[in-house]
Design brief:
Alpha-Beta Plaits, SH3 type barrels, 5-stranded antiparallel β-sheet, 39% helix
């Protein structure tokens, strides 16, 4: 049975950590499959030799290879990166020791958060939601990708259909509107409407 755990990462490096983790798991599991294939070949050779002393050697070697393959294999099934939880990725695995094994040496991973995460809490991140629907004119945002990464800006216009947002950068000497993808921003501060302040 799989469980879900949170892995702390360096902020802004969540996707890189998840990609490195997945590549490592794929590579190690591929190597474990190759060891299993070798073991099957040795078993096949042993069957041909019947009750020969060589057959015993092949069987013994095959058992060692199978044990090594099972020991080295990572039982990590998936990794989830969400823009809503910065500094963390969610990983599905058999248990936390599997994640610890697979994270050794992965840069920007800061360790495992104690405890399991219930699936009900993860479910909300699985539905694809456009960030543009949450952004309103006047909101203050931070650009998280592109040439203006790290810059803060005010939202001037929101195009729901194209999922584009036009912003004016705070640091620019001349306010020039810049249009960016909805995925390349993070809302820092929502604009408070007059209805909310009076009620």
């Amino acid at each position: 049975m799989a469980n879900i755990y949170a892995v702390k990462t360096t902020v802004g490096q969540e996707r890189n950590v998840a990609e490195m983790l997945c590549r490592r798991v794929e590579k190690v599991n591929r190597e474990a499959e190759e060891l299993n294939r070798e073991a099957e070949e040795l078993n096949h050779k042993a069957e041909k030799l019947k009750l020969n002393r060589e057959a015993e050697k092949f069987n013994h070697k095959a058992e060692k290879l199978k044990h090594k393959a099972e020991k080295e294999k990572y039982n990590v099934y998936s990794a989830l990166v969400s823009n809503e939880i910065r500094g963390y990725i969610l990983v599905e695995a058999q248990d936390k020791t599997e994640i610890d094994k697979s994270l050794r040496g992965v840069s920007h991973s800061r360790g495992l958060v104690k405890g399991k995460i219930p699936f009900a809490e993860v479910e909300k991140f699985l539905e694809p939601k456009s960030i543009v629907t949450k952004v309103k004119q006047g909101d203050i945002v931070e650009l998280i990708s592109g040439p203006f990464r790290g810059e803060k800006a005010r939202v001037v216009r929101v195009d729901q259909k194209k999922e584009k947002i036009t912003v004016e950068l705070f640091e620019a000497t001349v306010p020039i509107p810049v249009t960016v993808d909805g995925e390349s921003i993070r809302v820092i501060k929502k604009e408070v409407s007059e209805d909310e302040t009076s009620g």
